[in-house]
Amino acid sequence: MSKPSGIRLIALLEAAKGMVVLLVGFGLLELVHRDIQVMAEELVQYFHLNPASHYPRIFLDATTHLNDANLWLLAGAALFYAGLRLFEAYGLWYRQRWAEWLGAVSGAIYIPIELYELLHGVTWTKVTLLCVNAICVIYLVQSLRRHRKIIAPDGTAAGQPS
């Protein structure tokens, strides 16, 4: 895979993440002024889940703490995160160096969290997320290193006279 196509693939991945989180944010806004607890209970019943079992109970308990202010806050956080991912995707698509830095740093932040999650139980989803994230971070770091070798500190191309 050539360098630009790898960066563009990462840009598409970041854009997809941004769009999903943006949709989630809009979904949260749809819940403002609604009885979330009742909706959560109906959702658990719809999927034929036992409301007393572990994960449905966590879900139902979490909805008891949600109010309109919390929903607005979560939607705002989702908008910020989606904007950051889309901004990064734009920069990567157009081969901006700052976007490679942003992608490498923001991706690397998640690696310790993903490793911690693996310590609490290995699943294919967790392993896949870690691997994809690590591959993206390594690729972006290598791209940054290649660029540093091509451009000399004085701004001229390496190997050419000043």
Question: Could you please describe the fold and organization of this structure?
Answer:
With 162 residues, the chain is mainly alpha-helical. The chain has one domain (3-31, 66-150). It is 78% helix and 0% strand. The chain is built from six helices and no strands. The protein has helices spanning 3-30, 36-46, 54-64, 68-93, 97-119, 124-150. Helix 1 (3-30) crosses helix 6 (124-150), helix 4 (68-93) packs across helix 5 and helix 5 packs antiparallel against helix 6 (124-150). It starts with a helix and ends in a 12-residue tail after the last helix.
Oligomeric grouping of the chains: single chain
Give the low-confidence spans. Answer: none
**Structural class based on helices, strands and sheet pairing:** mainly alpha
User: How many domains make up the coordinates?
Assistant: 1
Our estimate of the beta-strand percent is: under 5%
Output the number of helix runs: 6
- Mean pLDDT figure: 90
End-to-end Cα distance: 33 Å
Give helix and strand order, one letter per element, not per position.
HHHHHH
Number of strand segments:
0
Secondary structure: helix percent = over 70%
The major beta sheet can be summarized as:
none
Overall, the morphology is elongated
Radius of gyration over all CA atoms, rounded: 21 Å
Helix and strand layout, with pairings?
Elements: H1 3-30, H2 36-46, H3 54-64, H4 68-93, H5 97-119, H6 124-150
Helix pairs in contact: 1-4, 1-6, 2-3, 4-5, 5-6
Brief write-up:
Helices cover 78% and strands 0% of the residues. By secondary structure, it is an all-alpha fold. It has one domain (3-31, 66-150).
